[in-house]
Amino acid sequence: MTTRYFTPALFGFLRELEQNNEKAWWDANKDRYISVVREPALEFINDFGAEIKNISPHFTSDSRTVGGSLMRPYRDIRFSKDKTPYKTNVGIQFRHEAGKDVHAPGFYLHLEPRRNFAGVGLWHPETATARSIRQAIYDKAEEWKTATRRKSFSDVWSVDPGEDETLKRVPREFEPDFAFADDLRMKSFVAGATLTQASVLSGSFPSALADRFMKAGPFARFLCEAVGLAF
Q: Is the pTM of this model over 0.85?
């Protein structure tokens, strides 16, 4: 894939939205959002589906405008102190066919001025799901080590959620001196890879992203199997 999907106009729109995050500005610029953000993203999603299927036939590429891989531009402000109504990023998730939202296993792309990255894994899974993953890490430590520490993975991906995204201590059902004790403390089981804006704008971006996702395949497989999903 050598098609160029994303252009500087996308990032220009998002930068302006940062400065004008209000309904009046959005309404005046919604057609622009559709032409420079939504339509290129949907085209990318549609075409990238073949790459996702090469990794696993159980992950979906859905180019619907509602309920598909492209996340809605509207923020949920019901329980947030930040009442700005619109997201200043583009979020795309190729989620597992069994999942219904962002908490399902998935491959993720985040586009935002000054902050672009790819992700893979489960973000904030339900308690029972997180417990199953921790148990799998504990019971299959060597498989987890292979999935997360091998060079082809660690050269591209980082599994480091930060202290705000970890439990204060290892859950009591596990030995605290376990080799991957810090991994048992994670609230989200995700890996991330930083992307440059220049790379996102290049014609080689789809192929480069597909290569990154392919290298994360064993990580995604481990997580899927830990929660009883096909990979």
A: yes
